[in-house]
Amino acid sequence: MPPSSPQQPYIPLHPQSTNHWKTFAIVLLIVFIGGIALLIFKSQLQSPQVQNITQQKPAANEILLTTGYVSQQTEQNQLPKPPSPKSGLTINKVFYTKYYPEEHDAIANNLFVYDDEIKTISQLTNYTEPLFYISNIRVVDENSVGFLRCSSGDYADCGIYVIDITSKKITEKKKLERQMLVNTLEFASLDNFAYFGNMRDKSKAVLKLILFDQGILKTLEQIDVSNATGRGGIIADAHQIQFSQDKQHLLQIDTSARSTGTEDFNIYIYNLSNGDKQIIENATHPQWVNNTTIVYRKYVGGGVYLYDIVAKTYKKIDAITQDAYYLSMLQGTDELLFTDYEAKQLWLYNFTTKENKKILDGALDGFWLTPTKIVYNEVRLCTQAEQCGMLDYKVLSVSIFDIEKMMKIGSIPDRSSDENFLYNMTSYYSSES
């Protein structure tokens, strides 16, 4: 019988082999848990909250250093990031007419577009009749622009049109009565718009505010007046229609049209579902802040105020100068751009943080091109030797300013003289008429 002793040393090897596999399993488990922890850590670094803090901080610092503004805000109380520019052919573009005060030729009264991405100008329409002119240019959506086209002859012969930016096809949305001269126009959508104007008559004028909704006309207001239009041209004037963001209300102001005298500084607010009307008296330059709040300038006395259409209450914004004009809301945010007319400056006010900061000197009448760019009149004060008429400044150019970079990034080439100032211009993000 062979000796059994050589087999005995192998008996204790079984528990050692078991410990080896247990150790191996524990190591694998530790590696697995560590890998998961690493993935979670990386995902937190790439989360939107961390990105917002790291991306906004340099931009905010750049603004603070450039303007000399000292802020006590924490990272959790930074300005809300503006909405990203939407895609579409009307984005990052300025639409306008080449307006010449003494030359109402066919080219001047066509629709043009300046593309700020590629720095080019294109002509969108090809009208040839010199007695017709285009006004009230409004961006309807990402691919369409609406406008009013009227005659400067004996009859208004106005029509409301929409052009498709892709195909250049022009669609007549509404042909108006020959005597109907439209002052202001605004679109809620391609088939929902409102216009305000007067019917010409030898002895009087009838003012009408009309809503066009899916082919159905509704008269929101009709007023008999002795003067169809009054004076205009002062900085407090406003000629505007604007839908609330939910399209349930509409505000309207025309400071030189409604009154039997020469002015009407009231904002009229219409509930489109039940026909109710509210009036903000002694007011001009209105903008919707949200669906229930309007910001405006007080006409006599100055200052900027908020009006709540539900509570019917007023509140003054003390942080904004008494000389603020041309209010421009960046819709969907808390950002209000305005002009300090006396100082010839553009300022930005945030309704959430209450921060009020100067953006630019030597500038007037800014409006939003994108959430980070504005279009404005670049100006300088007149010298004693210059003839500036009623103004105390000269327009040097219609320029574009980048708020993030805090620098002027260009000018619109054929709108760069004091005769061709910011007039009849609009963009996707503009809320002015």
Short description:
With 433 residues, this protein is mostly beta strands.
What does this molecule look like?
The chain is mostly beta strands. The chain is 12% helix and 42% strand. The protein has a four-stranded antiparallel sheet, with no helix packed on it. The longest helix is centred in the N-terminal third of the chain and has 33 residues, at 13-45. It is globular, with a radius of gyration of 31 Å.
Write the SSE topology.
Layout: H1 13-45, H2 48-67, E1 93-97, E2 111-115, E3 120-123, E4 132-139, E5 144-151, E6 159-164, E7 170-175, E8 180-189, E9 192-199, E10 205-213, E11 216-225, E12 239-243, E13 249-254, E14 266-271, E15 277-281, E16 283-288, E17 293-298, E18 304-308, E19 313-316, E20 324-329, E21 335-340, E22 345-350, E23 356-361, E24 363-370, E25 373-381, E26 393-402, E27 407-411, E28 425-426
Antiparallel strand pairs: 1-2, 1-28, 2-3, 4-5, 5-6, 6-7, 8-9, 9-10, 10-11, 12-13, 13-14, 14-15, 16-17, 17-18, 18-19, 20-21, 21-22, 22-23, 24-25, 25-26, 26-27
Please supply descriptive tags for the structure shown above.
433 residues; mainly beta; four-stranded antiparallel beta sheet; 28 strands; disordered N terminus
